[in-house]
Amino acid sequence: MAKNIIVQPSPLGGRGVFASKSFSPGEELFTVSRPLLSSLDGIRLHDTCVNCLKWDGDATIGVQETPLESTLKACSGCKIFKYCRKECQREHWRLIHKVQCPFISKQKRYQDYPASVRGTMDLLLMIPNLQLPQKQAIGELLSHIEERSKGGEWETTQVLAVAACKFAKRPDNDAAFALSLYCKVMTNAITLVGKTLDPLGLCVDLFVSCINHSCDPNVFFVMDGQALSARCLKKIQEGDELSISYVEPTNPTMIRRKELKEKFFFDCKCPKCLNEGNTPEDRFQGDSSTDGPAKRVQDEAFNTLFSVRRGKVLPEKIISELKRALDLCQRSGFFSIERQPIPSICSDLYVELMMQDRHDESFEHVFKIYTETDPKWYPNFHPARLAHTYVLARLMKYFCFQPGREPQELRGHDLHLVYYGLLLEIESNLNKSHGPTHSFAKGVRAEINMLREELQRDAIVSIHRELPSIMTAFRGLKKQITR
């Protein structure tokens, strides 16, 4: 049990996690060194160490200094899981892979199953070797199996659970148990992410699963490999219940409540939801008489965004569909630039554009998030804000080494110093966002030190004197880009 944190009955129902002392914003609440279960997405199995979760995230923004994929070594048995070093392979073997490997070796399409199904397969293999308290805690996890059985995906859910059961060589009469486990994984999983919040897979932890939802949370998570840390988002008093958001908290109330009902089967009654229509997340531009047409535009744009995220749009059409949804919102006049779904569309767009080496186009969307969206919704130390700033910083570095590929708006700006200034912004918030020992914090500080060497020690004082005006001019580009 984490120090100064207790699990007890919650007024929201079931169990909750409570603070037994006060915490300040940015303070660490607890760290789980390794969740009970972690499962990589299929597309990450080839380029991510399955044990420590090192991933060549720089490849997504065109700066691939040390290609991790070329150094990963596959298990000689299953040939599916890969490791960045021998120590990782030995540790993973000891933890679970000595049990997994014989089963995976006989599976021709193991990597094609969703991470949630492969996670259920792992749980079925792990359970016989778990301690009694862990088995009891798994038994207490919510599955919402009754509610799921009434949904349109139930037949697929049953088929996948049976596949997990057969994979683990469990008898047919264990199919109901496998189905229950699969539903528990889907209900209690949180997303595994890299240093710039790129999704890598999912994980389930028995302690973390006790934390309840709020659309106005007081806790955020950061991950460092397998380690999962909870940090304080706003002032927490002794006796306060800890809460995280199970969905995107900046979405309008109607969208949040619909997603919570469909995925987690409850009607959210947090203060933010009970104030529907009167929160910044819900407000449209213009008078209230336009709300009907505005909601129709909102629904169409969100439907496009969710279709892309659920894999229902052909890969070659993703960018055009996202641009169409963005254009729909902007032309309507109902949406300010920070009003969802514009920020989410911009976020997905910049990732897709970077993957296609269209970095000049991606800049506009990252820049909008940096200058308009993040300052509206997040405190300076929020990890999402730092992740976006880091992507923007690495874009500046990319343009420094690819002269002529930068957008027209950036020409005439000292991008080397803008890159440096953005890193300094990140560095000033790292102790609150990630903590001083986090690998992201160490990496950013190492980049800053290397850049200082390049800028020459005798010039640092004058550079720091000029930097505020350089960064002000850079941020001033929003008048050209975001309007």
From TrEMBL:
A GO molecular-function descriptor: zinc ion binding
Residues spanning the signal sequence: none
GO cellular component, one term: nucleus
Pfam assignment, any one: SET
Matches recorded under SUPFAM superfamilies: SET domain
Keyword terms, alphabetized: Metal-binding, Zinc, Zinc-finger
UniProt entry tagged with the keyword Transmembrane: no
Gene3D superfamilies to which the protein is assigned, alphabetical: 1.10.220.160, 6.10.140.2220, SET domain (2.170.270.10)
Domain SET: start-end pairs: 3-247
Domain MYND-type: 49-101
Identification of the protein by name: SET domain-containing protein
Organism: Eremomyces bilateralis CBS 781.70
